[in-house]
Amino acid sequence: MEPNSPLPTTRLPPGTVIAQARDWQANPVTLGSPALEVMTDLTKVKAATASPSTTLRQAEQIMIYQGVRMLFVVSDMPAIEGLVTTTDLHGDQQMLLVQQRNVRYDELCVADVMAGLTMLDAIDYQDMKSATVGNVVATLRSCGRNHLLVIEGSTGESSRQVRGVISRAQIERQLGSPIPVAQGANTMAEVLQMLS
Questions:
Q1: Sheet with strand 115-116: strands edge to edge
Q2: Which of 20, 33, 21, 22 has its CA nearest to residue 176?
C-alpha cells in the first residue's frame, strides 16, 4: 500500500453491533488471589482528576462521567495535592461549612473538603507484589478507608509516585461480597470471619 493512499472501506450490513467495553478488572478474585489483581494501575488507566477550585457539583459530575468514586486533586499535573471522594462530597463536613460560612452548597469547592496528602494512607508497590487480596482487605479495614494509594519509587520525597489505587468497591465487585470497613479487623482470620 502506498503511504498516502486511502484505506479500503465497506458498507455496514444490517445487524452490525457496537463493540462493548470490557472491564479489565472484572476478573473474580478470592482472598488468596494476588493483591495486584485488585489494584487500578495508573500506568494503564488514566487517573481521574479535579482542580482544587472545582465546585463540589462539578466534581460529582466528573465522577459520574468517569465512573469513579474518587478524584486526585491537582493544580499542576502530575503533582498531587490530595483526594476527594463521593463521601467527601456528601458527608457532614459540607453542611457544617455551609452553616459556618453562611454560603450555599454550590459555592463550596474541592479544596474545602478534600483530604490532603498528609491524611492519605498508602502501600508500597513492592509490598503489593507479594501480598494477597486478603492482605489488602485487612489493610482497608484497619485504616477504615474506602481507598488506598499504592506508591513506588525510592524513599526520597520527589521520586515517589502514585502507581495505583485500591478501591473497596472494586474489590467487592471482584470478590462478589461486601467488605464491612467500620469495625477494625486486623488479622486474616478476622477478615475471613467477616466475609463468611
A1: 49-50, 70-74, 80-85, 115-116
A2: 33
Residue 52: its pLDDT value, please?
Answer: 95
pTM of the model: 0.74
Residues 65-84 have pLDDT tens digits of: 998 999 999 988 888 899 99
Domain extents for the chain?
A: 35-195
- Tell me phi and psi for residue 195, to 5 degrees: -85, -10
Kindly report the number of other CB atoms within 10 A of residue 114's CB atom.
22
The CA distance from 41 to 24, in Å, is 11
Residue whose cell numbers read 486533586: 73
The CATH class of the 35-195 domain is alpha beta
CA distance to 6, 43, 85, 128, per residue, from 64 (Å) = 39, 22, 12, 29
